[in-house]
Write a structure and sequence with these properties.
Blueprint (H helix, E strand, L loop, with lengths): L1 E3 L9 E3 L7 H11 L3 E2 L1 E6 L5 E6 L2 E6 L2 E8 L7 H9 L1 E6 L5 H7 L9 H5 L3 E2 L8 E2 L4 E13 L2 E13 L4 E2 L4 E2 L1 H4 L2 E3 L6 E3 L20
Antiparallel strand pairs: 1-2, 3-15, 4-5, 4-8, 6-7, 7-12, 8-11, 9-10, 11-12, 13-14, 15-16
């Protein structure tokens, strides 16, 4: 750790951290403290024998729309793949369910460190419903479901980066203007992760900025 800049109080100076010199727990605190808020992928998978697993992950985001691609980071547990990563490796299918204020308590229950083979949906009192394109069920209580198939998984030391294509999307009818493909985000009530374990944020405080228009060019997406 070192200071950068000249003059001013110590609180105003930049502090540099050499990530290679830090313990994993220290890197976790720093990265989750500055990359905020983070959306939550509440993932349902299924084992080859039909056992359902559900777990939330906040190392997650959408990476593109052509094709529609998402990426999820899943860390190993004690040197072995977590249940979610194991099931995806075996079946190549998953469903990402959106967490909102109405389901955040149940999501937290499903985050428990249960043994492999335990049905977290049953533990949390949640209702599995069939998907259309993939075998893992959707969570009925969630307002949005992304049915996905694995494209590739990169194993980087103790982290598995799962790249998946969205092959189907379900959204509660009152949250979408179907004719305009416009999601009513202000009504969705999505919940995100903030800094360390146990901290979350609501998404009610919205504001809009109009992107500058450059003559002769259409505004890009993203």
């Amino acid at each position: 750790m070192s200071g950068e800049g000249e003059g001013g109080s110590s609180d105003a100076r930049m502090v540099h951290f050499d990530m290679a010199a830090l313990a994993p727990s220290e890197r976790y605190k720093l990265l989750t403290g500055v990359v905020v808020p983070r959306p939550i992928a509440w993932i349902t998978t299924i084992s080859p024998d039909g056992t359902v697993n559900a777990a939330p992950f906040s190392y997650f985001n959408v990476m593109g729309s052509d094709p529609p691609v998402i990426v999820i980071g899943v860390g190993d547990r004690e040197g072995e793949a977590k249940d979610t990563a194991r099931n995806i490796a075996l079946t190549r299918e998953l469903v990402v369910n959106v967490v909102n204020e109405e389901t955040v308590i149940e999501m937290n229950v499903s985050a428990g460190d249960y043994p492999y083979g335990v049905d977290e949906l049953a533990k949390a009192g949640l209702t599995p419903i069939p998907s259309v394109r993939v075998r893992p069920p959707r969570i009925a209580e969630s307002p949005v479901h992304l049915e996905c198939t694995e494209l590739q998984t990169l194993e980087i030391r103790r982290t598995r980066i799962i790249v998946a294509e969205v092959v189907g999307l379900h959204i509660r009818g009152d949250l979408i203007d179907v004719a305009k493909f416009r999601v009513h985000g202000e009504q969705l009530g999505a919940v995100g992760r903030m800094h360390g374990r146990g901290w979350y944020t609501r998404t009610r405080d919205l504001f809009e900025l109009v992107r500058p228009r450059i003559a002769g060019k259409e505004p890009a997406g993203g």
